[in-house]
Give the backbone structure.
Amino acid sequence: MIKSVAIQGVKGSFHHIVSQQYFDNGITVKECLSFDNAIDSLLNKESDAVIMAIENSIVGSIIPNYALIDTHNLHIIGEHYLDIQHHLMALPNQNITDIKEVYSHPMALLQCKEFFKSHPHIKLIEDKDTAEVAQRIQEHQLKSIAAIASKLAAEIFQLDILSESIQTIKHNETRFVIVKRKNSEIPENEINKASLKFELSSKRGSLATILNVMSDCKLNLTKIQSLPKIDTPWFYAFFVDVTFERYDDFKKAKSIIEIMAQDFKVLGEYKNAKI
């Protein structure tokens, strides 16, 4: 049973919001400065699970987090999709013309860059976390400084929202995964999605052969991400997500791919959150 969960960032962050939506109110949230720290807390048994952003509908995959899960032999036991709404916030009694600098996570700045073209007087500065900036503004009473963060962060740290939903693409969704040290114990008949990792050479047709196996076994490929192997030139690691209606179909495909590919690994078997 999961009683505590580690997140990258502080309360008010999007990872915190996911912890509230995915788990019940009794969950204990452990705040961590980085994903590496969050993983360390899991490995050291200071938390039961970690929530990790894994991909965004605008900027794509968060490759380092795939690598963390793979390197430490961790398991994805669930997923959650969150509509990301970025709000510009600052201490009360200010307006946007008073703001000189905005600090936020690089991804948040990237997702909101069109908004700031209309406000060239504002300097954009990369920071560790969205909500942590909001917390710092409140703790140090920083005027002329603004954060890009969630509405929950504005409420927790008593900041005024100067402009709502400033992200360039209004439908901005991030996929989060819930990660544990061991695989889930969800019954096979409830599992309809899996995350896989395998390695292939750049030999012609090697990837196509694997994809044909998936198709023949009635698997639907929902995600594929390649990563070159630094220590082995012209070899690539592939991170793949598949959905299926019958677990037996997945089991058949798994047994074939295990023979055909190198370093085959199941990163997780869980419920598809999009259904």
